[in-house]
């Protein structure tokens, strides 16, 4: 019996507007209307992992001396279409637009809030 491998999308097809460190609102599912921070983005699968949300209990076997067995709680990935980015300026859940703006001395492509029109700041970048 052969096992089929799940094919991953090429990176150029998997453009996502949500990045690690963004605050998001979950809009569907068991954790609807809850907010959290994206701890990991999986662009090949178009999914994100939100800290402390979409948690499931998983039974794990012990692995020798390294890992103890038992029931652990694990945050599972959510599809990016089931979360909505919260604007850093107005604090509202919003869709994301892209715009070319002059930032410092360079012109860069930035994410823009569709409601207030302000630039959405990256939490992972310090500048």
UniProtKB/TrEMBL annotation:
<dbReference type="InterPro" id="IPR041988">
    <property type="entry name" value="Ribosomal_uL24_KOW"/>
</dbReference>
<dbReference type="InterPro" id="IPR008991">
    <property type="entry name" value="Translation_prot_SH3-like_sf"/>
</dbReference>
<protein>
    <recommendedName>
        <fullName>Large ribosomal subunit protein uL24</fullName>
    </recommendedName>
</protein>
<dbReference type="InterPro" id="IPR005824">
    <property type="entry name" value="KOW"/>
</dbReference>
<keyword id="KW-0694">RNA-binding</keyword>
<comment type="function">
    <text>One of the proteins that surrounds the polypeptide exit tunnel on the outside of the subunit.</text>
</comment>
<dbReference type="Pfam" id="PF17136">
    <property type="entry name" value="ribosomal_L24"/>
</dbReference>
<keyword id="KW-0689">Ribosomal protein</keyword>
<comment type="similarity">
    <text>Belongs to the universal ribosomal protein uL24 family.</text>
</comment>
<dbReference type="GO" id="GO:0005840">
    <property type="term" value="C:ribosome"/>
</dbReference>
<keyword id="KW-0699">rRNA-binding</keyword>
<dbReference type="InterPro" id="IPR014722">
    <property type="entry name" value="Rib_uL2_dom2"/>
</dbReference>
<comment type="subunit">
    <text>Part of the 50S ribosomal subunit.</text>
</comment>
<feature type="domain" description="KOW">
    <location>
        <begin position="17"/>
        <end position="44"/>
    </location>
</feature>
<dbReference type="Pfam" id="PF00467">
    <property type="entry name" value="KOW"/>
</dbReference>
<comment type="function">
    <text>One of two assembly initiator proteins, it binds directly to the 5'-end of the 23S rRNA, where it nucleates assembly of the 50S subunit.</text>
</comment>
<keyword id="KW-0687">Ribonucleoprotein</keyword>
<dbReference type="InterPro" id="IPR057264">
    <property type="entry name" value="Ribosomal_uL24_C"/>
</dbReference>
<dbReference type="InterPro" id="IPR003256">
    <property type="entry name" value="Ribosomal_uL24"/>
</dbReference>
């Amino acid at each position: 019996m052969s096992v089929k491998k799940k094919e991953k999308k090429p990176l150029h097809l998997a453009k996502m507007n949500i990045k690690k460190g963004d605050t998001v609102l979950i809009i569907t599912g068991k954790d609807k209307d809850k907010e959290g921070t994206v701890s990991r983005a999986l662009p090949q699968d178009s999914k994100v992992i939100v800290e402390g949300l979409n948690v499931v209990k998983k039974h794990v076997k012990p692995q020798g001396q390294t890992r103890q067995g038992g029931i652990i709680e694990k945050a599972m990935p959510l599809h990016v279409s089931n979360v909505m980015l919260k604007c850093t300026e107005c604090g509202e859940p919003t869709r994301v637009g892209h715009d070319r703006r002059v930032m410092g001395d360079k012109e860069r492509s930035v994410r823009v809030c569709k409601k207030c029109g302000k630039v959405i700041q990256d939490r992972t970048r310090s500048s």
